[in-house]
Amino acid sequence: MATDFTEETAADAVIESFGPDTDPRLREILTSLVRHLHAFAREVELTIPEWEYAIQFLTRVGQRCDDERQEFILLSDVLGMSMLTETISNRKFGVATESTVLGPFHVVESPVRSLGDNIDLVGTGTPCVITGRVVSVDGSRIPGATIDVWQANDQGFYDVQQPDVQPRANGRGLFTADANGEFWFRTVVPSYYPIPTDGPVGELLIATGRHAFRPAHIHFIVNAPGHRPLTTHMFVAGSKYIESDTVFAVKKSLVADFEEVTDPALAEEWKVGKVPFSHADFEIIMQPEGHGQ
Ligand code: BEZ
Ligand code: FE
């Protein structure tokens, strides 16, 4: 006869119920999940009203998801789970550029643009030139890498959040590095901004006394032949919230100085209409496939 279900035997009872044909990785994940979940419930002495609240909360998280919005990812983000998974999957080896979260705003195909193009289609905000190069871990230049960039505007909004205000694809561009691995484009300095707070994740932030803001940043996805794809950000040094990103995505190596340029000759060379403007440089170091694994 099976033993009674007790606090001590509960996890084993569930784990032993898995059939022999269960996929080995699924078994490994569920075994660990059940053990940690049961240990958590015992540790906090979870009450039935708390369990009911959690079920209702997760139900509301699901109800807040649609084609445009993924409240579960947002929940994972603010609990640090997205960044933890990202960091485990992309362990940094040596000098390679660190990765960080993708975020929910890479929603439209970035328009193909030429080096030097301006991704700011509006003309407000501080003009900015981003220069950079794509190299391998041994320092050799990688010609022809693609660099997909997207960013919020100077008011802290992505184009998709303001379809009646910003032109479609404002702040977005898909660039190809030249034969020397170099790239550059013009834009405006992005602003810090809040993640969406009008759903259950917003309630969680309020209940735990947290703010909703991310520091100013530009997103990058870099693809280079023979190298692992890289999803990362360039953070604006000195931005508000740089020390307290609500999704924990800041890595010190990704914080860049956006320096004020007052030299009219540089404004001319980089086709920026006026001084002062801002300039930041980003060396992107890619890991060869299989490197460090
Ligand atoms: C973003 O950077 O676009 C982002 C990342 C995580 C949550 C919300 C926004
Ligand atoms: Fe972002």
Question: Could you give the topology of this structure?
Answer:
Blueprint: H1 10-16, H2 24-44, H3 48-63, H4 71-78, H5 81-89, E1 127-136, E2 146-151, E3 172-176, E4 182-188, E5 193-194, H6 200-207, E6 213-214, E7 217-223, E8 230-236, E9 255-256, E10 259-261, H7 264-269, E11 277-286
Parallel strand pairs: 1-11, 8-9
Antiparallel strand pairs: 1-4, 2-3, 2-7, 5-6, 7-8, 10-11
Helix pairs in contact: 1-2
The structure holds benzoic acid and fe (iii) ion (FE).
Could you provide a short overview of the structure?
With 293 residues, the protein is of the alpha+beta class. It is 26% helix and 21% strand. The strands form 3 sheets. It has a 5-stranded mixed β-sheet, with no helix packed on it.
Fraction of residues in helix: 25-40%
Question: N-to-C SSE series?
Answer: HHHHHEEEEEHEEEEEHE
Q: In terms of per-residue confidence, which ranges show pLDDT below 50 for 5 or more consecutive residues?
A: none
Widest beta sheet: strand line-up: 3-2-7-8-9
Distance between the termini: 48 Å
Tell me, briefly, the overall form: globular
Q: Main β-sheet: number of strands, strand sense, barrel status?
A: 5 strands, mixed
Beta-strand proportion: 15-25%
CATH architecture of the largest domain: Sandwich
Q: Could you tell me which ligands this complex binds, including any ions or cofactors? A: benzoic acid, fe (iii) ion
Number of strands: 11
CATH class division of the largest domain: Mainly Beta
Number of helical segments with 4 or more residues: 7
Output the CATH homologous superfamily of the largest domain: Aromatic compound dioxygenase
Which topology of the largest domain does CATH recognise? Protocatechuate 3,4-Dioxygenase, subunit A
Tally of domains: 2
Mean pLDDT: 95
Radius of gyration: 23 Å
- The secondary-structure class comes to alpha+beta
